[in-house]
Predict the structure.
Amino acid sequence: MGAFHAYDIRGIYNVDFDRETAYKVAYFIPELLGTDKVAVGRDCRVSSDEIHDAVLRGITDAGADVYDLGLTTTPAVYFATANCGFKASIQITASHNGPQYNGMKVSTENARAVGYDAGLKTIRQWIDEGRPTPVAAKRGSVHPLDVTEDYLAFLLRYKGDYSNIRIAMDLSNGMANLYAKRIFGDAPDYLFDELDGRFPNHDPNPLIPKNIEALQALVRKSGADVGVIYDGDADRVMFVDENARFISPDLMIAVLGRYFLVERGEKGLVLQDIRSSKAVGEYLAPMGGEMRTWKVGRAFAAEKLREIDGVYGGELAGHYYFRDFFYSDSGLLASIIILNVVSALKKEGRTLSSLIAEIEKYENSGEINFRLEDKAGAMEAVREMFCAQEKPTAFMDFDGYRVEFPQWWFNIRPSNTEPYLRFICEASSRELLDEKVAAVRKLLESEFGAK
């Protein structure tokens, strides 16, 4: 049962969970969420068909009807959930993980995420307790439901004219293949533009440097103005500039401000996660964007954006959330808007890299992973070490710790899905950054056996 996490159910299929677990989760969803109709989608992984069959049996055995969305992206499931008024939906996917993984993302009314604390914990308890799953006297039915045209119509409302820019686009053999060419046409130079749940070219995780090498090579070869890469289920997107340099996804939160805050004049609150660069808020403030910081992950970020009625938000992991999209994330919508910005820049005679240079004021370590046992003790030790040396100017403790000082800050947090303690640091100079990272590495390796 190690597949139950803060945001979703996910793990190595037939190791962390199997079709019996999938059946039981699906069986209990109608009761948990108080509905007799559940929308179900799936990605293209080899194991998704088997899980799909188990999920449909579970829901219908419980007496509820399935509205089967078929092969689709995770954001399209969010769209169907909110737009069609479902109180429950399941997307069968392991998002950016490799082909041996699979899982389920559960949503409720208005596409609100059902994370561990919002219901998945209860289902896990019911399964652990051996709660029975009797077949209902009247089993539910399965109804095909295709939201493709409505979803595309929604996305295309945001699309501008890209005829003046050259685009390189890596579809990662994932679910973005369903819609990308209908949105962007034949103009982009595409990579890995066939659905293949074995992910033969690279794992569908754009945060891993080796997975973007093919895109970087294509940008150099084609002279593209921008490179775009999606993850496996198309809820995340990342970018490289015209020099094939990877752009830290948190900086793209600032880029989105040129569209929402300037072009559309939607002044207001913008959400970032606890790992985001201080440069983002500093760049957006003169545009009328007021930054808010919150926990990592859709189950937290989408709910917080809704609570504060923020204009949009983003995460270091490449998720971007939009008030216009039911406060949910969509890689395709984010890329459409970013390409609008790149096109506008080109018309001004500017490049994407020049804009990023305006935003990026600090030296950043990127997220560093330490494998160790005593995560809580290690976090306390790091906090105490630095706070004994210097008085913080800000302190946040809702997702690990984010501690800010006049010339630098750090965040240290336990992974919700992997056996790691994650550390990120940003400083006003490379020398200061290297000093702080070295101090953390020395402490965690010597006192906590970090690997």
Summary: Residues 241 and 339 are 11 Å apart (CA to CA). The chain is about 35% helix and 20% strand. The longest helix spans residues 430-448.
